[in-house]
Specification:
heterodimer, A: 428 residues, alpha+beta, twelve-stranded mixed beta sheet, B: 261 residues, mainly alpha, Arc Repressor Mutant, subunit A, two-stranded antiparallel ribbon, 10 helices, 5 strands
């Protein structure tokens, strides 16, 4: 009995010591974390003030080096503040609105020289400066509790709850949204890009639920033994679609088909995979047969990537005018290595077809355009989106440059009219 | 009699030796042609052999990318083979005859995640540096890294391992949609570790070891699939505590998650 009491007492003491140590360790961690958060909040406050000064400085100069330097500071500071905001526990609606506003201030400052009309930069930034001053005060009030050490981490997180009216984060978030709309309204091309993404310009006639199932059965007859269910997209979907779920033997999957026009957005089938038996050429042939069957006749093979169970194929639309690839209109296919079955199709980007325009093609001497050790391996034409979200006809060049670690390969896209380098991408 | 036995034994050993070497050479590479985009052990051998004779200077990782492609073309040019950047039967035969491949050395170092090379003429032991982690044998689109794949697989497994495959791809797609969206951080790591963004980060489940299914789901998302149809949020209506999330326009329900804009 005595032994039992001794063992129990010993266990109890050990447990108490362990719990005490654990609680102390947790306290230390919580303190260290709140210290880090407080530091980042203080940094953000400081940089917010610096940002305001940088904006004011940028308004002093008339397109000169001084202006350029100040605009670079604006871009750098907005990036720094965004990075702080991203790593802080803040109200979700506030941090998303704040991120958006800062990225717009930064991008506008960076591209102002190239994009804005005379006088526009001054007007926009003067308004942004006023709004940032209000924001700066709101931010300091809202974060004072944690920065001054008045709140523990738990208390801070509790205060983020929308029910707690101590700090009206959502109200601050709404103000920032208003600033974004007034200071940086969407440009015509941004608005077009959004409409395209939301398929708002789609004018095709509506298809019924039964029609959608028929389209599915026609393209993928081998997996349509049992349609589990067909649902319409939720009312909040920007483009209505039918969501069809199916099962066939061990395969379970889905296909989304638009209500307007009955276009396949995406299809994916999941099943156990066996040993690879089908050759790459056979798989490629099957993808091309399916694309024809599904009506995607204006696409060409772009690339393929092998993974454990399947190959992922990429096809791009070709614009007949200049026989140019349109990189925004792609189709992805997933092919099982064991049977060669198409287990995935994604045409969401393809059906948002870009409207491209004709554009002059000037000749460019690549020998003088690139450094002498750069070799142009291939030159094609392609339509690609520039920074203003406008589709431009470009030379698509595959170039190589040798260095100590081997041969580096790059895609360089050069505007066919202005010779501007739209994009440079390293290929692996 | 004794001499005859010795002769028979010697002949037997010779035949077995020849048979053994024949088996080894037929084991070299698989039967398939290797071209850009291919992944696997046969690509590892291709890279190692090309490196042995100094045509390939890149990392031996089993992914047939542009580095391997140009190295192979240069090899084909030097040995008078058709220059197509595809390792077919003739190219592989020639490469096997002019190079060596220490499979054990290469595979052991890959398994350990070491940094190493496989150049001929230098002791292999002098070509190894300790590395951090075993590389993934996955071929990703250029704009994504192995780190993205690993982090996303952890996030998908932590957030949605009980969900249907479609739901797991959709969670991965939401992460990528956020990276592209101006309201969110512009890196995969930034999005995943944004405080309060994902429950799996808050409760530590993100550090569970993801299964192959979660990795496959992430691969599909990285390769363009988005069953969430451009959503940037999702929530479980049974467990969600935020009132704000209910105000988001809902797009689709997959398994237990509602996906919204």
């Amino acid at each position: 009995m005595k032994k039992l009491v001794f063992v129990l007492s010993f266990a109890l003491i050990a447990l108490a010591v362990f719990s005490y140590d654990k609680a102390k360790e947790n306290d230390k961690l919580a303190l260290a974390l709140s210290g880090q958060y407080a530091k980042r909040m203080a940094d953000a406050s400081e940089k917010l003030d610096e940002l305001n000064v940088a904006i004011e400085k940028s308004l002093l100069f008339n397109q000169s080096d001084g202006s350029k330097k100040a605009r670079e500071d604006i871009w750098r500071l907005t990036s720094d503040i965004r990075s702080s905001i991203d790593s802080l526990p803040l109200d979700a609606s506030f941090s998303t609105a704040w991120n958006n506003y800062l990225s717009r201030v930064g991008s506008y400052a960076k591209d102002a020289e190239r994009l804005s009309k005379p006088g526009e930069f001054e007007n926009v930034m003067a308004k942004a400066s006023e709004n940032l001053q209000v924001m700066s005060t709101d931010w300091q009030v809202a974060t004072a509790g944690l920065v001054d050490g008045n709140y523990s981490m738990n208390e801070w997180v509790e205060r983020l709850d929308a029910n707690n009216k101590d700090v009206e984060w959502s109200q601050i978030g709404n103000s920032v949204k208003q600033y974004t709309e007034s200071d940086f309204p969407l440009t015509a091309s941004e608005s077009d890009a959004m409409k395209k993404k939301d398929l708002k310009n789609m004018t095709d006639s509506e298809v019924s639920q039964d029609d959608a199932v028929s389209i599915f059965k026609q393209i993928f007859p081998h997996v349509t033994n049992d349609v589990i269910g067909v649902e319409k997209s939720q009312p909040g979907a920007p483009y209505p679609f039918y969501h069809i779920r199916f099962t066939s033997n061990q395969t379970v999957g889905y296909i989304d088909i638009t209500e307007k026009g009955g276009h396949v957005l995406s299809y994916l089938a999941d099943r156990p995979f066996g040993e690879a038996t089908v050759s790459f050429d056979d798989m490629k042939q099957r993808t091309e047969e399916l694309l024809k069957k599904a009506g995607f006749r204006d696409v060409v093979f772009e690339e393929a990537r092998e993974n454990d169970n399947a190959w992922h194929f990429v096809y791009v639309r070709v614009e007949p005018l200049h026989n140019a690839k349109v990189f925004s209109d792609v189709i992805h296919l997933k092919v099982a290595k064991d049977t060669g079955e198409i287990v995935g199709l994604n045409a969401a980007e393809y059906i948002r077809k870009e409207k491209v325009e004709d554009q002059p093609i000037v000749k460019i001497d690549w020998k003088t355009f690139f450094n002498k050790d750069v070799k142009v391996e291939k030159a094609e034409l392609a339509y690609v989106e520039n920074e203003q979200l406008i589709q431009r006809l470009a030379y698509l060049l595959t170039v190589t440059k040798e260095n100590s670690s081997g041969i580096g390969t790059y895609h360089v896209l050069v505007d066919s009219e202005t010779k501007e380098v739209i994009k440079t991408e390293k290929l692996f | 009699m004794k001499k005859s036995i010795i002769k028979i034994l010697a002949l037997f050993i010779l035949i077995m030796g020849l048979y053994g070497s024949a088996v080894d050479s037929s084991k070299a590479f698989s039967a398939r042609d290797l071209g850009r985009g291919a992944t696997g052990d046969d690509v590892i051998e291709l890279q190692a052999r090309l490196q042995y004779i100094s045509f390939y200077k890149g990392t031996i990782d089993g992914k047939f990318g542009y580095g391997t492609y140009w190295a192979l073309r240069n090899f084909q040019e030097k040995y008078g083979l058709p220059i197509d950047g595809v390792a077919g039967a003739n190219t592989k035969k020639k490469l096997t005859s002019v190079s060596e491949y220490n499979e054990k050395f290469v595979m052991d170092n890959l398994a350990k995640g070491n940094q190493f090379t496989h150049y001929g003429g230098t002791p292999l032991s002098a070509q190894v540096k300790a590395g951090a982690s075993k590389p993934e044998q996955a071929h990703l689109p250029s704009k994504y890294s192995e780190q993205d794949l690993k982090l996303m697989a952890n996030a998908v497994y932590g957030e949605a391992r009980g969900e249907p495959y479609e739901g797991q791809v959709a969670v991965a797609a939401v992460i990528l949609n956020r990276v592209e969206h101006p309201d969110f951080p512009n890196t995969v790591g930034g999005v995943i570790f944004q405080p309060g963004a994902f429950t799996a980060v808050a409760d530590g489940q993100i550090w569970l070891t993801p299964n192959e299914r979660a990795k496959e789901a992430v691969l599909d998302a990285l390769n363009g699939w988005d069953p969430s149809e451009n959503s940037i949020y999702y929530f479980n209506p049974v467990t969600a505590t935020s009132k704000w999330i209910w105000s988001r326009p809902q797009v689709k329900k997959i398994g237990m998650h509602i996906f919204c804009h």
